Amino acid sequence: MIANSEAIILQSRKFGDTSKIIGAFTKEFGKISLLAKGARSPKSKFGAALDQISQCSVTFYRKQNRDLYILSKAEITVPRRRLTESYERLTAALALAEAVDTSQDTGEQNVALFDLLIEALNTLNIAEDNEYSVVAAFQIRLARLMGFAMTTRIRGMCKIRPAYHFSFADGAILSANDYRVPSNGWAFSPAEYEVLDALSNCQIAEAAAIGQTIAQKAKIHDFLAHYFRFHLEKTMRYRTHELLLE
Question: Is the pTM of this model over 0.70?
Answer without folding.
Answer: yes
